[in-house]
Design a protein that fits this description.
By secondary structure, the chain is of the alpha+beta class. Helix content is 23%, strand content 25%. It is built from three helices and twelve strands, in the order αβαβββαββββββββ. Strands 1-10-7-12-5-2 form a six-stranded antiparallel beta sheet. The chain has a four-stranded antiparallel beta sheet with strand order 6-11-8-9, with no helix packed on it. A two-stranded antiparallel ribbon has the order 3-4.
Amino acid sequence: MRRSLVRAQVGEPTKRNGKCNRQRLTCDKHTANCNSMAANRNSSESNRNSNLKGVAMKAPVTYDASFVANPDALFTTLWNELEWERRADAPRREYYCNDVDVPYAYGTGSYVREYLPRPMHPALLPIKAAVEARIGSPMEVCFLNGYEDARDQLGWHADDSDSMRDDLPIAIVTVGARREIMFRPNINTLEIERLWLDNGSLCLMAAGMQDAWQHKIPKAGFACGPRISMTFRGLMLAGKGMTKLSAAAVA
């Protein structure tokens, strides 16, 4: 309501002034309510966005919300240029790349999946270098998951393959839509912690965490666009006479 409609004019009758004063009180009360609602929304959003800032998590993870300088451009390049595969039993796109010519397998029994390595896309190389600089060690492997919409997801699991180094952190870099990651300890699977992964963020799972924790990307409970996760890991057998793959092959 415009203030000119409720401002009392000098010299007007008292009755008119009283009416205008009541209108002003009503308007001020409405404004106060709106401000209170906005504050509550901002507080809720702030809490949801806190992501480890003053929030004690038991899961041994660290989070950097602004790790990638231009996440939108990186997302567009990877989404359009990678030769993604979407297997019938996987509710997401996948792309596995590696510095050395070693396949990757995970799962057990009839759910074992094997992936042949592909070269790193050139757009991944600066991200890989930044992750290695942050960790202080080479990260030869990058496994990418592409979530097309809110329905795509990744179930409870641990990245505990024998072919991957357990003495190094695992880096999850996100571009695209904001999605949630969940963590639970093996000793109490009902004790679940949650973290929002923002566009351009880095989530580091500590060395050895995969022995004691699981994580998942649940279906989103809201409409959302596509997301790409890049998971960088150290390879156990790296540097032992394996063939180096060239990024130029996918340029």
